[in-house]
Amino acid sequence: MERSFKTEVQSLALGDGDTFHGEGILAVTKALLQSGVSYIGGYQGAPVSHLLDVMVEAEDQMRALGVHVETCTNEASAAAMLGASINYPLRGAVTWKSIVGTNVAADALSNLSSPGVMGGAMIIIGEDYGEGASVIQERSYAYAMKSSMWLLDPRPDLRTIVRTVEKGFELSEASHAPVMLELRIRACHVTGEFAAKDNRKGEYSSLNRIAAPAQFNYSRLAHPPVTYAQEKLKVEERMPAARAFIREHKLNELIPGDLDEIGIIVMGGLTNSVLRGLERLGLADVFGVSRVPLLVLNVVYPLVPEEIREFCANKTAVLVVEEGYPDYIEQAVNVELRRADIQTRVLGKGLLPRAGEYASEALLDGLAGFLREARPATIDADAIAERAASLLAHKAKIAAALGPLPPRPPTFCTGCPERPVFSAIKLMQRELGPTHISADIGCHSFATFAPFSLGNSILGYGMSLASAAAVGPNLANRPIAIMGDGGFWHNGVITGVASNLFNKGDGVLIVMQNGYTSATGQQFMPSSLGGRDGPAPGMNIERTLRGLGVTWLRTVRTYGVAKMVKTLKEAMQTAERGLKVIIADGECQLARQRRVRAEDSEKLKRGERVTRARYGVDDEICTGDHSCIRLSGCPSLTVKPSTDPLRTDPVATVIESCVGCGLCGEVAHAAVLCPSFYRAEIVQNPSWRDRALFRLRSIVIGWLGGYNAAGAAS
Ligand code: SF4
Ligand code: SF4
What we know:
With 714 residues, the protein is an alpha/beta fold. 41% of the residues lie in helices and 18% in strands.
């Protein structure tokens, strides 16, 4: 990866007596080292990419602790790593983005949780749920329930997060079950401090290897007939052991309050938001002292029946604050209270939204509604409801005053090498008509937004070609599948390419070869030119495809729009049957800029010549039809008023953020738009040749313009 995590790496070295300051996700990373893990793995994805990135950069520290770090090619391989904890007393952790990553890992997770573990096994999942999430909205809770893995959801407070990680390993070992630690976006980015401890070496690790392999023990395999016994073990032994541990070690917290005829049962991760809501309603202070008692579930699965009963007994009503659908916790609380014949009313969904993120507005509304329903004797619930309404009233006023706001969809970075491919597809479609586009996960999915609006389906990471398998045979035109190189290695090479070839399929596949898994922060992957620790491993997409039997294969530089259009037309029209693959080659511009900027600044310091390309539009030639903007979608290409008083339409202009990729000029050329684009080269520390050329050009331009350059300058 191109980004540096030097500062974060230093904080991993803190020990007894030091105070750690920083973000939640880094606190988790430190807590893993304090817990004596022997191995760490994962697949990057927001909001937990940071964990693996930091571990990778802290290689020296990992080596000193004997921690094996693996950047896996997908979540399934990360989950399978946890198999090391089945037979050996090895603590290990893996990480990925959920729900999507958990879906990919599901098979390995089932086969891990059935035999159970000897060493503590932890899965750190970035629960990408709610406003700003980038994946489908489902909960990971169902996986915990179906596979009997325990789900930790710590209160977003660094001390609680670190304690939950450390205790999580103990819980896993005490109950012989894997644990999942879910972190929402806010928990990952919450900042705070905690008293650091020395990092611990694992009991066994690469520094102290286990002398002999585990003895053959059939009951440790996820294989019949022992799987039948394992299912019983989950219910009869592991679950009770987990509940006893959670209760004994007080993993869930009780925040007391004087309004004890009511209470709130809250998922740990939502505690700060609930306390903030109560504070705005005058029922808590900013330090989290609440008038309403709270049962904070830092472990949301399994629930501990005794804790639920004890909290609810003698209360008239409780509110369950459980984000997302279905309402697993609310149902479980209801069942537990009915079983115990406790008549406390359970409120939750209905007062709170049935689906979607519990942002402050939803919580204010829900809390006020709860108080109105429960009507505790010592407070005026109606006055509190009015307060909530007044706190939210300004929203309607603002909306009315502003009117509908223009949408601001995310888009490709300026100069992105993937944008030209979609310009080319649009140009191709102008001639050949519309095409079915199977889109995929990755930066290229930005093409589903305006101005491209290209893409008919997204079925998962690396799934585009597979999702076109039944489209092609039923459609007059060949479908186009778009896949990133990240998606190719994640699973697209098997689920898409191998399956297509095996079934003698047809169709067009575009592989965006930008060199990194860019959307998750420019991590390296098998075909990157660099590697995590120096030289690249040398895997190559073109050779892989040829090895699999792809015969129609073209590699095209993405910025060459005219050539890309020609190649696309050829792929769509050739009589040759079979898969046609276009490797669209162009380095991720964000990664390139980070690299080039650092290189250029070094050169400038040494007084060396540095050049930078910029594009511009000649105001006098621009016709103002803005086709260039619609076809390129570059955020550095915008409009400004025309300087010609006879023309009212604004003209196109290139702003300061242009990185000189050349796409706008290429598009203008390929689409036969207009000749108004020009390219300028900005030279810093010019050589004598540059200066001489500049002087010569100035004289010639001055002569052509009919004035004396020297005179004009004076
Ligand atoms: S991160 Fe790279 S690949 Fe992704 S949009 Fe930006 S330039 Fe394009
Ligand atoms: S050259 Fe054109 S397309 Fe490329 S960054 Fe500049 S304005 Fe955008």
